[in-house]
Design brief:
The chain contains 14 helices and twelve strands. Strands 1, 2, 3, 4, 5 and 11 form a six-stranded mixed beta sheet that branches. Strands 8-7-9-6-10-12 form a six-stranded mixed beta sheet, with helices on one face. The termini are far apart. Helix 5 (147-160) packs across helix 14 and helix 13 crosses helix 14. A hairpin with a 7-residue loop joins strand 1 and strand 2 (52-60). It is an alpha/beta fold and 378 residues long. It folds into two domains: 54-178 and 267-305, Bacterial extracellular solute-binding protein, family 7 (D-Maltodextrin-Binding Protein, domain 2), CATH 3.40.190; 183-266 and 314-340, Bacterial extracellular solute-binding protein, family 7 (D-Maltodextrin-Binding Protein, domain 2, 3-Layer(aba) Sandwich), CATH 3.40.190. The protein has helices at residues 2-32, 67-87, 108-114, 132-135, 147-160, 162-165, 193-196, 208-214, 226-232, 244-247, 274-279, 282-318, 327-350, 355-373; strands spanning 41-44, 52-60, 91-97, 119-122, 172-178, 183-186, 200-203, 217-220, 237-240, 256-259, 267-272, 321-324. The model is unreliable at 1-36 and 43-48 (pLDDT under 50).
Length: 378
C-alpha cells in the first residue's frame, strides 16, 4: 500500500510541470475576486489611459424595503454613479447589504473603519460612550421641530466644531442626518406620567436618561430588533419617529401613538473606509463631496415626510389611536426632563469635556435651524 502511494506521488511529480501553470491561473483568478474591503475592487481599462471601475459594499441596518434605503441611500448612490460616469473616465457600482446581513447595527462603524465594508450607515448611539459629544445633540428639551432641522444641526456641528470632528477621525464621513422628534409607540394607551411609569420602553442609547426621568424602564436595542421585542412582550413600547410604523412594520405590533414633547432626536451617519476614500482620484472625491452636501437637506426632508406618512399609515391601515397630551400633562413631562441637560453637562465635565460649551453649541444650532426650517412642513 505504501509503495502504491509512493508511485502515485511519483506520477504527480512528473505531471507537475504541465499542471502548475493551470493551478497558478486558478489561484490568481480566485484572488482577483477577493479584493479586501478597505480597497475598492478595481478593474483597469483594457486600453492605456482608460478609466477604472470600482465596486463598493454598502452595509446598513435598515431593511431593503425601507424608504431610507430605497429613496435615500440608493438615490444618493445613483447620483454619484451617474455623475462619475458622465464627468470622468471612471465607473462605479454599489452592492447593498441591508438588514445587518454583512455587519450588525453595532458593528457597522468599526467594520467600515477596519475595512470589512467600504461604506455603511448607522447610528452613533448604537454604541453608547463612543461618541459623547454627538450624544449632546440627542438630548431632550430642544426645539428640534422636524427632521430637516435636526439634520442640518448635526451636519453643521460636524463641519464647524472640532470636538465633533475628532469623534470620527478613523473614517471618512459622507454626511450626517437625524430623525427629528419622536413619539411613544405602544400596546397600551399612555396619557399621563402615571401610565408610563414602570413600562419597558425600547430606546437608542441617547434616550436612556429621558425614559429614566419620566419613570419608565429604558431598554436599549437596535431598531431592527424592535418588532420581535414588541410582538413577544419583551418591551411595552418604543420611543421613535413614526416612520418605523411602516418602514419596520411596527404598526403590526403596536396600537397607540403618544405625541411627546421635546423628548427625542437620533442622529445617523453615512461613512466610508478611509483607505477606500484615499484610493479615489480627486475628481471622483469632489463628486462625492458635492452629492453629500446636497443629501443632508434631501435626507432631512425625506425623513420628515415619511414620519408624517408613517403615522397616517398606522392610523389608516391598522387603526392606531393618536394620543395628544393635555397642556397640563405636557408641562409635567417637560418639567420631569428638565434636569437631563444639566446632568449631561455635569457628567461630560467630569469626563474632561467642556460640557457647558458643547451644550451652548447644541442650543445655538438648534435655534438657528429651528428659525430657518421650523415651520417647513406646516
Amino acid at each position: 500500500m505504501k509503495n502504491e502511494k509512493i508511485r502515485g506521488l511519483s506520477k504527480m511529480k512528473k505531471k507537475w510541470p504541465v499542471f502548475f501553470p493551470v493551478l497558478v491561473l486558478i489561484i490568481m483568478t480566485a484572488l482577483a475576486g477577493c479584493a479586501p474591503a478597505d480597497e475598492p475592487a478595481v478593474e483597469n481599462g483594457a486600453e492605456p489611459g482608460a478609466g477604472e471601475h470600482w465596486e463598493l459594499n454598502f452595509s446598513t441596518f435598515w431593511p431593503a424595503e425601507d424608504f431610507q434605503v430605497e429613496e435615500g441611500h440608493k438615490a444618493w448612490a445613483r447620483e454619484i454613479k451617474e455623475r462619475v460616469e458622465a464627468e470622468t473616465p471612471h465607473t462605479i457600482e454599489f452592492a447593498w447589504h441591508p438588514s445587518g446581513v454583512l455587519l450588525g447595527p453595532t458593528e457597522i462603524y468599526e467594520g467600515v473603519a477596519d475595512g470589512a465594508s467600504h461604506l455603511g450607515s448607522t447610528c452613533p448611539s448604537y454604541t453608547p460612550g463612543i461618541f459623547p459629544v454627538t450624544a449632546a445633540f440627542e438630548l431632550p428639551g430642544l426645539e428640534n421641530n422636524n427632521a430637516l432641522v435636526s439634520s442640518m444641526v448635526i451636519q453643521e456641528a460636524f463641519e464647524t466644531y472640532e470636538l465633533v470632528q475628532q469623534e470620527y477621525e478613523d473614517v471618512k464621513v459622507m454626511h450626517f442626518w437625524a430623525t427629528g422628534p419622536g413619539d411613544i409607540l405602544s400596546n397600551e394607551p399612555i396619557e399621563t406620567l402615571e401610565d408610563l411609569e414602570g413600562m419597558e420602553i425600547r430606546v437608542a442609547g441617547g434616550s436612556v436618561p429621558v425614559m429614566d426621568a419620566l419613570g419608565a424602564e429604558p431598554v436599549t436595542m437596535a431598531m431592527s430588533e424592535s418588532y420581535v421585542a414588541l410582538d413577544t412582550g419583551i418591551v411595552d413600547g418604543i420611543l421613535s419617529p413614526t416612520d418605523v410604523l411602516r418602514g419596520f412594520m411596527l404598526a403590526e405590533v403596536t396600537d397607540y401613538i403618544t405625541k411627546t414633547p421635546q423628548l427625542y432626536n437620533i442622529t445617523f451617519m453615512k461613512i466610508m473606509n478611509m483607505d477606500t476614500w484615499n484610493a479615489f482620484p480627486e475628481e471622483v472625491q469632489q463628486i462625492f463631496e458635492e452629492v453629500n452636501e446636497k443629501y443632508v437637506y434631501e435626507y432631512g426632508v425625506l425623513r420628515a415626510e415619511h414620519t408624517l406618512e408613517g403615522q397616517e399609515f398606522a392610523v389608516d391601515e391598522y387603526g392606531h389611536r393618536v394620543i395628544e397630551l393635555s397642556p397640563e400633562e405636557e408641562e409635567r413631562w417637560l418639567e420631569a426632563i428638565e434636569p437631563v441637560q444639566q446632568q449631561w453637562i455635569d457628567d461630560a465635565t467630569a469626563d474632561g469635556l467642556p460640557g457647558e460649551e458643547i451644550m451652548n453649541k447644541v442650543l445655538e444650532l438648534d435655534q438657528k435651524y429651528s428659525e430657518q426650517y421650523g415651520d417647513y412642513f406646516e
